[in-house]
Design goal:
Blueprint: E1 19-25, H1 32-43, E2 57-66, H2 69-76, E3 87-93, H3 98-109, E4 114-120, H4 130-134, E5 138-145, H5 153-169, E6 176-181, E7 184-191, H6 196-199, E8 212-217, E9 236-240, H7 245-255, H8 273-285, H9 291-298, H10 309-317, E10 325-330, E11 334-339, E12 348-352, E13 356-360, E14 373-378, E15 384-388, E16 393-395, H11 397-404, H12 409-414, H13 431-440, H14 445-458, E17 486-488, E18 511-513, E19 529-531, H15 538-545, E20 557-561, E21 563-565, H16 570-586, E22 591-595, E23 603-605, H17 608-621, E24 629-633, H18 640-648, E25 653-655, H19 657-665, H20 673-694, H21 700-703, E26 709-714, H22 716-722, E27 730-733, H23 735-747, H24 775-785, H25 797-809, H26 837-841, H27 851-854, H28 856-869, E28 891-895, E29 901-905, E30 933-936, H29 945-949, E31 953-956, E32 968-970, H30 977-983, E33 991-993
Parallel strand pairs: 20-22, 22-24, 24-25, 26-27, 30-31
Antiparallel strand pairs: 1-8, 1-13, 2-7, 2-8, 3-5, 3-6, 4-5, 9-10, 10-11, 11-15, 12-13, 12-14, 15-16, 17-26, 18-19, 21-23, 28-29, 32-33
Helix pairs in contact: 3-5, 8-9, 13-19, 14-19, 14-20, 16-17, 18-20, 19-20, 24-25
C-alpha cells in the first residue's frame, strides 16, 4: 500500500459557506424575466461570497436554468423536430482540448447520442479579475441528440458523463462537465455575481427563456477557489458544510461493489463536500428515485409532524449527510429548497398571485410587489419546499411526506424489524478476581477509581477542573492504550457544534447491526438487528453470540478472535485476522463479532482500535463491507473516547466487556449489579452524543467510519494500513513498538495491585508521568512571586524567575511545541530598530479566562497588569464585579514580590484575600481593574447593561468550552458566594455553558 506524505495542508478540510436560492414560475411558462430576477438576486448575495480586492474575482458564482433550446438552434442553424431531444453539455476544457473533446464525443456515442455541433460559448474575459482570468478554462458547449427515446434520456446522459469521469480518472482526458442534460444547463464563473451576465452574454440575451433559475454565490472558508468548484453543481446548490463527509465518502466506497459499474466512479476524487453530496443525489435520482426523494433520503429531518414510514425506512437504509445546509435543487421537473435537520442555515420564500416563487438565503433578493405576495415564510429545521413544474403547484413539507408515504411497502418492511434479546450472564466477578485481567489490559488505579467508578455509580462521564498536562502518548513514560494516540476533531470555522442537552431531539443513537440494505433498491429489506444504541450490554453481547434474536434465521453471527500467536508478530497476526474476516464473510457471515476475550501470554490481544479499523479496511478493499455488520467486544475499551474511536473506525456496535464487568464489581452492597451496568451504558450514550455533537454530527450512523480524528504519534505504516485517510501530521511508534508494549503487559509477572502511573494526578514515584504543572515546579513559581506557603519570598525575584524558566525549558519533551525550535527569519536586529516596548504593549491581549476558573486574585492581577501596560484584559465568560466601575471601589490589597501592591474590588461581606505579607498602602488603582474586553459567552453569565456599557471591546463567543465544542462547566465547589453573585446564580450549584451560543449559533 502506498504510504501517504504528512502535510499540514489537506484538501479534506475544504468547506464552503455561501448564498443560495431560486426563482420559478409555477405555470412553467418560460420567460427571460425569471432569469433576470435570478441574476438580480445573485448580485444581491455579494456579501455572502468572497470577492477579491479588484472587485471582479470571486470564489465562484453560478446559475442553473432550463436549456435555451430556441436560442441555440437558431444560432447554430440546426433544424430539430420539437419532440426530439436536444442535449447540451457545458464544458470547461484545457487550452489543447482536442483529446478531451474526443473523450466527450466517445462518451456520448456509447449512449447512442450524436454530436451535432460544438459551440464556443461567448464570453468577455475583460470582465474578469486577474485571479479568475489566470485560471480561466476554454468554455464550450457540446450539442447532441438521439433517435432512441425508448429509454430514459436523462439517465443515459448521466451515464455518458460518468464514462467521461472515468476518462478523467485514468488521465485520458482533462476538463470538467458543468452540466450535460436536455433539461438543465449551468453557467458558472469566478467573477463577481453582478458580472455574470456581462461575462456570459448568453445570460443577457432576451431569447434565453426559462421557467426556473437556481443561483449560488460561493464563499470558500478555507479552500483555493477554482472554476469547477463554483456552484450550482449538476443538481444542487449548497450553503453549508457536510461535517460527516469523510464518513459518507467511506461508506460510499464500501458500497462500491454493490453499485452498477456503469455509474462509476460514483464520487470524484478531490471534490468538495458539496460535490460529493451532489454526486450521491444524482446516483439515486437516476436509479429510480425522484430528486426530492433522493435529497430527503440523504439529508433527512430529525422528525416529522406525523409518523413517516418513508423517513423511518430510509433512516435505517442510509446514513445522513449531516451538517449545516441550506440546499437549492432543480432538474427541470421540480425546483426546491431544503434545510438540514438542525436548520442551521436560513432559507426564506415568497409566492405571488402571478405564480412567481422566490426562495433564498435572505428575504428581499427579488423586488416583489407586497400586494401580490400571497404567502411568505421560512423553512424550519429539516423542512423542504418544492415547486412542481409538471403539475404546476407548490408543495410544502407535509404534502411532500404525504407523497413519499403513499407507498405502502415502507410500512410493511418496517414491520419486519429484528430486535436483539438480552441473554442471562454469569454471576458478577469482584475486583480481586478481575485484577489479573485488569493488569494484562493495562488498567490503572486512576481509571478504575476516577473513570469507571463514577460511570457505574452516577451514570455520567466524570468532570475534572484542569486539563491534561501529561505528555502526549508517544512521549509518555508509561505505555498508553492505542486510543490515546487519537485526538477528536471538533467543529470550527463556520460549522457549529450542537448542544446535546438542549437539542437532544435531533440527536439519534439508533442504529442497525448487520448487512446493509441495497441503496438503489427502493424496496430493499432491512437486514440486521435494530438497536436503540450502539453500545451492547454484557447480556446483549451474549445474545449476539448465541443468536438470540427474532425472525432473522438468515442472519449469521460469527465470532472473530482478534488475537495473535506470541511466536509471530503483531503485524502478521493482524493480517491473518483480516484474511479470516474476508473468508468468514465469503462463507455467509452477516455479523462479525470481533473479540479479545481469551487473550493470554501465548495469544496476545491485538489492540481493538487497530483490529476494528483494519477489518473494516480489508472488507472494503475486498468489496464485502456492505455484506456484514461489525460488532466489537473490547477488553481494552474503558472510557468514552475509546468507544468513540471504535465506532469512528467502523464498529456497528461495541461491548466494552471488561469495563462493564468492572462496573458491576464496583456496585455498592445491596444494589443490583445490572443497575451499575445500565448506568455505565447510559454514560457511554451521553458521552458519545457529546463527542458527536462537538463535531456538529447528530446521528451515530453518520459518525461511524467518519474517522473524525487526528493521529499524533503513530508511524505512517500503521496509519496507512489501519487508519487510511486520517490526518497524521507527525510520525511515531510503529507495529514493533506497539507489539513490544503488548508483550510487556502480557508477559510480565502479575503484580498484586494495579499500577498508578499518575495520568491524572501527579505522583512522585519513579516511572510515573511528569506533569506540566507538577507541584515542585508550581512551588518554584510561587516562591518567585512570594505566595508559597511556609516558604519565604525569593530575595532576588529576577534570578529566581530565571531559574524557574530554565527548569521549564529543560523538562523532558511532553507536547509538540517542546519538539520545535525557532528558526530565525533573518539576521538579528539591533534593539534600536525594533518598535518601542510601550507601543508593543498596546497590542497585548490576555486570554479570556473567567474569574471563577482562575481565582479572583489571579484574575485581578492580570487585569491590573494589562491596564498598567496599556494592553487589554478579558473578563472571560463569568462577568466581573460592578465595583470596579465606581469611583471608589471597596478593595483588598496584598504585596507582590517586587514590593508593589495587587488590589481587587471585593464586596465587604465576602472578606478579603488571606496573605502572609502585611498589607501596604495601595497605589492609585481607579480604572485599572476594569477589563477592557467583555465576553458574552453561551451561558451569558454576568452579562448586564452596565457590564456591556463599560466595555471597550465586546467579544461574543460562538462556541464554548476549554475542549472546543463541549461547552463549559464550573464545578459546584468553585461557585463561591462571590462567583454566584457575579453570575447571578446560587452558591455550590454547578454552572454549565452550552457548546454553541444559542442566540447566534453560527455565521448566520
Amino acid at each position: 500500500m502506498k504510504m501517504s506524505v504528512p502535510s499540514l495542508l489537506d484538501s479534506r478540510f475544504d468547506h464552503d459557506s455561501c448564498g443560495v436560492g431560486f426563482v420559478a414560475q409555477v405555470s412553467a411558462t418560460p420567460s427571460y424575466d425569471i432569469l433576470a430576477k435570478a441574476l438580480t438576486a445573485l448580485a444581491r448575495l455579494a456579501h455572502r461570497g468572497a470577492v477579491a480586492a479588484d472587485g471582479k474575482s470571486s470564489d465562484g458564482v453560478g446559475i442553473m436554468a432550463a436549456v435555451p433550446r430556441a436560442l441555440l438552434l437558431d444560432e447554430l442553424k440546426l433544424d430539430l423536430p420539437a419532440g426530439k431531444p436536444l442535449a447540451v453539455g457545458m464544458c470547461f476544457l484545457p487550452v489543447d482540448s482536442a483529446k478531451t473533446e474526443a473523450a466527450i464525443v466517445r462518451s456520448l456515442e456509447l449512449q447512442s447520442f450524436k454530436v451535432l455541433a460544438w459551440r464556443t460559448v461567448p464570453t468577455r474575459p475583460e470582465t474578469l479579475g486577474e485571479i479568475a482570468l489566470s485560471t480561466m478554462p476554454v468554455i464550450k458547449q457540446v450539442i447532441a441528440t438521439t433517435d432512441d427515446t425508448s429509454t430514459d434520456v436523462e439517465r443515459r446522459l448521466y451515464l455518458a458523463r460518468k464514462k467521461f469521469d472515468g476518462f478523467l480518472a485514468s488521465g485520458e482526458a482533462d476538463g470538467y462537465l458543468c452540466s450535460l442534460s436536455t433539461q438543465t444547463i449551468v453557467y458558472k464563473s469566478m467573477c463577481a455575481g453582478r458580472l455574470l451576465p456581462e461575462f456570459f452574454p448568453d445570460l443577457a440575451n432576451q431569447a434565453f427563456v426559462t421557467s426556473f433559475a437556481l443561483f449560488h454565490q460561493r464563499y470558500a472558508t478555507n479552500t483555493t477557489p477554482t472554476w469547477h468548484r463554483a456552484q450550482p453543481c449538476r443538481a444542487l446548490a449548497h450553503n453549508g458544510e457536510i461535517n460527516t463527509v469523510w464518513g459518507n465518502r467511506a461508506r460510499m466506497a464500501a458500497r462500491d461493489a454493490t453499485l452498477p459499474d456503469e455509474c462509476k466512479p460514483i464520487l470524484t476524487q478531490g471534490g468538495s463536500d458539496s460535490t460529493s453530496l451532489d454526486e450521491t443525489v444524482e446516483l439515486l435520482r437516476y436509479n429510480g428515485r425522484t430528486l426530492p426523494e433522493s435529497l430527503r433520503m440523504l439529508v433527512p429531518p430529525a422528525y416529522t409532524a406525523k409518523p413517516s414510514s418513508f423517513l423511518q425506512y430510509h433512516v435505517d437504509m442510509a446514513e445522513p449527510w449531516d451538517g449545516p445546509a441550506a440546499l437549492g435543487f432543480a432538474d427541470g421537473k421540480v425546483v426546491g429548497a431544503a434545510l438540514d435537520r438542525n436548520g442551521l442555515r436560513p432559507s426564506r420564500y415568497a409566492v405571488t398571485n402571478t405564480g412567481i416563487v422566490v426562495a433564498g438565503s435572505e428575504a428581499g433578493l427579488v423586488d416583489l410587489d407586497p400586494n401580490t405576495v400571497i404567502e411568505s415564510g421560512r423553512l424550519g429545521p429539516g423542512e423542504m419546499f418544492v415547486v412542481d413544474l409538471i403539475e404546476h403547484k407548490v408543495l410544502h413539507n407535509d404534502e411532500l411526506f404525504d407523497l413519499f408515504d403513499a407507498d405502502p411497502t415502507y410500512q410493511q418492511l418496517l414491520a419486519e424489524q429484528t430486535p436483539l434479546v438480552k441473554a442471562d450472564i454469569a454471576d458478577t466477578r469482584d475486583l480481586k478476581s478481575l485484577l489479573p485481567i485488569h493488569l494484562a489490559f493495562g488498567y490503572t488505579k486512576e481509571e478504575v477509581r476516577m473513570i469507571l467508578a463514577p460511570m457505574a455509580t452516577e451514570g455520567k462521564d466524570p468532570v475534572w477542573s484542569m486539563g491534561d498536562d501529561t505528555p502526549l502518548a508517544f512521549l509518555a513514560k508509561a505505555p498508553r492504550p492505542l486510543y490515546a494516540y487519537f485526538r477528536q476533531r471538533f467543529a470550527q470555522v463556520t460549522n457549529p457544534a450542537i448542544d446535546p442537552l438542549r437539542e437532544a431531539c435531533v440527536v439519534s443513537l439508533h442504529t442497525r447491526l448487520g448487512p446493509w440494505s441495497h441503496m438503489l433498491d427502493k424496496h430493499a429489506p432491512l437486514p440486521g438487528l435494530s438497536l436503540f444504541s450502539p453500545f451492547l450490554s454484557l447480556g446483549q453481547a451474549a445474545a449476539l453470540r448465541e443468536h438470540k434474536y427474532d425472525h432473522a434465521a438468515n442472519l449469521k453471527t460469527v465470532e472473530l478472535p482478534c488475537l495473535f500467536d506470541a511466536t509471530t508478530t503483531l503485524e502478521a497476526g493482524l493480517e491473518a485476522v483480516g484474511e479470516h474476516a474476508v473468508s468468514l464473510v465469503h462463507n455467509g457471515a452477516g455479523i462479525l463479532l470481533l473479540t479479545d476475550r481469551g487473550a493470554s501470554s501465548a495469544s496476545l490481544p491485538i489492540p481493538m482500535a487497530m483490529a476494528t479499523a483494519y477489518v473494516n479496511v480489508v472488507l472494503i478493499m475486498a468489496g464485502l463491507r456492505a455484506n456484514v455488520g461489525i460488532a466489537v467486544e473490547a477488553g481494552d475499551c474503558r472510557d468514552i473516547h475509546h468507544a468513540a474511536v471504535l465506532i469512528g473506525y467502523g464498529a456497528g456496535a461495541v461491548c466494552p466487556w471488561l469495563a462493564l464487568e468492572s462496573g458491576r464489581a464496583l456496585t455498592p452492597a445491596g444494589t443490583d449489579p445490572y443497575e451499575s451496568e445500565k448506568k455505565m451504558l447510559k454514560s457511554l450514550d451521553t458521552g458519545l452524543a457529546k463527542i458527536m455533537s462537538k463535531m456538529g454530527v447528530s446521528v451515530v450512523d453518520s459518525y461511524r467510519s467518519a474517522h473524525l480524528f487526528d493521529i499524533l504519534g503513530l508511524h505512517i505504516s500503521v496509519v496507512d494500513k489501519c487508519f487510511p485517510e486520517t490526518p497524521a501530521p507527525i510520525s511515531g511508534i510503529g507495529f514493533a513498538e506497539i507489539e513490544q508494549q503488548l508483550r510487556k503487559l502480557w508477559g510480565a509477572e502479575l503484580g498484586t495491585d494495579l499500577t498508578d502511573p499518575g495520568w491524572v494526578k501527579f505522583r512522585r514515584a519513579d516511572g510515573t508521568e511528569p506533569h506540566g504543572w507538577a507541584p515542585p515546579l508550581v512551588k518554584e513559581l510561587q516562591t518567585v512571586v512570594g505566595s508559597a506557603r511556609n516558604v519565604p519570598a525569593a530575595a532576588d525575584p529576577a534570578a529566581a524567575f530565571q531559574i524557574y524558566t530554565q527548569n521549564v525549558a529543560n523538562r523532558e519533551p511532553a507536547f509538540l511545541r517542546d519538539l520545535l525550535e525557532i528558526r530565525p527569519a533573518g539576521p538579528e536586529l539591533p534593539v534600536s530598530a525594533v518598535e518601542a516596548p510601550e507601543k508593543m504593549y498596546r497590542r497585548f491581549i490576555a486570554s479570556a479566562m473567567s474569574l471563577g476558573s482562575l481565582s479572583p486574585e489571579a484574575h485581578s492581577t492580570i487585569t491590573l497588569a494589562m491596564n498598567t501596560l496599556g494592553g487589554k484584559s478579558n473578563t472571560g465568560e463569568g462577568g466581573e464585579d460592578p465595583g470596579v466601575y465606581k469611583p471608589s471601589p471597596v478593595v483588598s490589597s496584598f504585596r507582590t514580590p517586587g514590593g508593589g501592591v495587587v488590589t481587587m474590588a471585593r464586596n465587604e461581606s465576602e472578606g478579603s484575600v488571606a496573605v502572609a505579607e502585611p498589607i501596604v498602602e495601595a497605589p492609585a488603582i481607579h480604572g485599572k481593574l476594569n477589563n477592557k474586553i467583555k465576553q458574552v459567552a453561551s451561558g451569558r453569565f454576568g452579562v448586564t447593561a452596565e457590564y456591556l456599557a463599560n466595555a471597550e471591546e465586546i467579544e461574543i463567543k460562538v462556541a464554548q468550552g476549554a475542549k472546543p465544542g463541549e461547552g463549559g462547566q464550573l464545578p459546584g465547589h468553585k461557585v463561591s458566594g462571590l462567583i454566584a453573585r457575579l453570575r447571578h446564580a446560587q452558591p455550590g450549584v454547578p454552572l454549565i455553558s452550552p457548546p454553541p451560543h444559542h442566540d447566534i449559533y453560527s455565521i448566520e
